[in-house]
C-alpha cells in the first residue's frame, strides 16, 4: 500500500450535513422547486449520514425545503438507528407506526400545490402513495431537476475519492502477482474482493473478471470460465472506502498478447488519454465522450464501443454527471467521474481502460495512476 | 445439518416462468389492469429468473400484458446477461443504447390510455419518465393492485422455503454452541453469516445480534457492544437459499436468566404460539396480528410491541401478505409468512420469537422448528 493510504479523513460533522442541506435549499429554489424529497440511498447518506440497515417497503423520507427545519419521517422501529446518524442533530425527526398511513404523515410535510424533486431511486410505490395523497403536487427526479446536487466535491470528499482510488490501484498491483491461467474467473474475482478490503475498502461493489469472449460483454461480472493462456482479461473493480467510491479498469494479457490485442489495447489507451486531456472547466460532458469515441471510430472500431464514456462518482459509483452524447452540462472544478472507453469484439475479447478523474482549475487529475500499458500476467 | 437439507430442488424451467406470466396476465385483467410493468428485483426474478448483477440508473423493464409476448427492455450492454436468464426463452427482448431515450422505447410497449401495475421498488426516476412520456397512462404499485401476485407458493417453492427454514434452524443449533460472553455482537453476527452459508445459503441478508439494551431496538443489526453475562440477546437472521428466503428469531440468555426475562420471554412465546394456532384458510391477516397482540396486551406489555406481527416471504424476505391491523386479505393455502411478536423494554432488553409459517388446507405448518424455550448460552 502507498504511504498516503494510511491517512484517515476528517469525519463529517453535523455542521457539514447542515451546510449541505442549506445549499440544497438554495439550489432547489433556483431550480424552481418548493423542496426536495430524499429516500434511503446515496442522497440520504450524503445529506444526513444516515444509511438504514436495509431499504424496505417501510417509508423513510427526508424533506428539505425553505423556511422549515429539514425533517426525517421514519418508521418508529427504525428511529433509534436514525437518531444515531452522524447528521441527526441537523434534522428534525418524526415517526409513523405500522398499520397507519405513512403517506398521510408525509403529506403534512409537503406543500399541496408544490413542485418537489425526489431521489431517483425512491420506490415507485412511495411516489405513487404521495401522488395519491397529494394529487396537485408535482414531482421530478432529482437527477433531472438538480443533477449537480452532489457533483461538486469539497476537499474532504476529494481526499476520500483519492484514497479510494489509491486503494484500488494497490489492489491492481497485487492482482498482477496472482495466477490467472487455469483458475476460474470467480477465483480471481474473490482475490480482487479480498484485496480491496485489505487495502481499506469497507464495501466491495463489483469485481468484473471478463476473460476471453466474456470480456466482450461489458457487464459480465465473473463466471465459471477457466482462464487460459492467450486470454485478454478485463478487470473492473471497485467499492466504497470511507464512504466514497473507487472504480478502475485495466485489461491484462495472460501470457504474451497477440498482435491484434496489442493494437486494440493501444487504441483504447489512446482514447482514454485523449479524453483525459480534454478535461478542463467549461468543456461540455458530451465532449469527453466525443473525444474518446472519435479515436476509436477513426481506428475503425466505432461500432464496437457500445456504452457511454463515463459516469460521476461520489458516495455511490454511478451518479451525474454522465459523459454521454447529449449531456451539455459544463465541467466544473470538483467534479469527479470515470473515463472508460472500451472495444468489444463479440465472441472473442474485450478491452476497457478506466480511471477516475477529477476536474481541477486548469485541467484534470487522475485518482487512478497504475500503468496503462498492457500488462502480462501468468 | 439435517438429512433433508441435502435435497436439491427441481430447477424452474422456461415453462414455469411462462406459466407464471400467463397467470399474471389473467390476474391483471381481473384487477382491471391493461398490463404489468416489472423492474429488477423480486418480481423480475420470480417471473423470468433474471437478476441483473446490479440495479442501476439504466432502465430495465419487463412488460406483461394480454395479446402480446412478454417483452424485456434492456440496456444493450446488459442484453447478454438477460439472454442467459433461465426464463429468457419465455420472453421477447429489445434493447436501448446509451444516449437514447429509454422511456420512448418503453412507451412503445404500453397502451397510451392504459392502467398498469408497476413493481413497488421500480425507481421513481423511471416511473416519472414513463409518466412524462405517457401522460394519459395510469400506474399503480403492484403490491396495491396485485398484492397476491407472488403470495401463493407452489410445491417447488414450498420445498425451497422449507429447505431454507431447515438451514436457518441448523444455524441456530450451531450458534448455541459458540461463546457469547466477552465477544462483540459483530463477532456473533459473523458466526451467523458463516453458518448460514455453511448450511447452504447463497446469500445472507441480515444477522441481527441485539444484546442487552440493543435488543430493545427491533432493527438494531449488530454493533461493537461486548456481550455480557446476564444479557438477553435477540438473534434474527436469514437470507436466500435456492433463491428463497429464511427468517427466524430466537432470544437467548447469556448465563442464567433473570426472573423478568423468563416472564417476558414466556409472554412472547405464548403470543407466537397463539398466533400460529390461529392460522387457517379464510382467516384475515389482521386477525393473526390481533391474536398475538392480545396476548401481549393482556400481560400488560401492549405498548412495548411496536411492530406488526409478520410479513410474507418468498424470493424476497419482506413481501405481501402482511400480518398487520387493517389487512383484510384472507389466508389461503400456500401463503408463507413470519409470525414474530416481540416486547421491547427501552434501555434494558428485548425479546422476539419468529418462525416462518405456511398455510395448509387445515391450518398452518412451521418451516422453523427449533425449541422455543429460552435457551441459555455461555
- Percent of residues in β-strands of chain A: 15-25%
Give the CATH H-level superfamily of the largest domain in chain A.
Answer: Creatinase/methionine aminopeptidase superfamily
Tally of DSSP β-strands of chain A: 18
Radius of gyration of chain A: 22 Å
What is the typical, i.e. mean, pLDDT of chain A? 95
Describe the structure.
2 copies of one chain form a homodimer. Residues 1-5 of chain A have low confidence and may be disordered. In chain A, strand 5 (115-118), helix 5 (124-133) and strand 6 (138-141) form a beta-alpha-beta unit. In chain A, strands 4-3-2-1-5-6 form a 6-stranded mixed sheet. In chain A, strands 7, 8, 9, 10 and 18 form a 5-stranded mixed sheet that branches. In chain A, strands 13-16-17 form a 3-stranded antiparallel sheet. Chain A has helices at 14-30, 42-48, 79-83, 102-107, 124-133, 142-145, 155-175, 185-198, 259-277, 285-298; strands at 35-38, 61-64, 71-75, 92-96, 115-118, 138-141, 203-211, 232-241, 244-245, 248-254, 310-312, 319-323, 336-339, 342-345, 349-352, 355-359, 364-366, 375-377. Chain A has 2 domains: 14-145, Creatine Amidinohydrolase, Chain A, domain 1 (3-Layer(aba) Sandwich); 155-377, Creatinase/methionine aminopeptidase superfamily (Creatine Amidinohydrolase, Alpha-Beta Complex), CATH 3.90.230. Chain A is α+β, with helices and mostly antiparallel strands and 378 residues long. Helices cover 31% and strands 22% of the residues of chain A. Chain A starts with 13 loop residues before the first helix and ends with a strand. Chain A is built from 10 helices and 18 strands. The interface between A and B is large, with 45 and 44 residues.
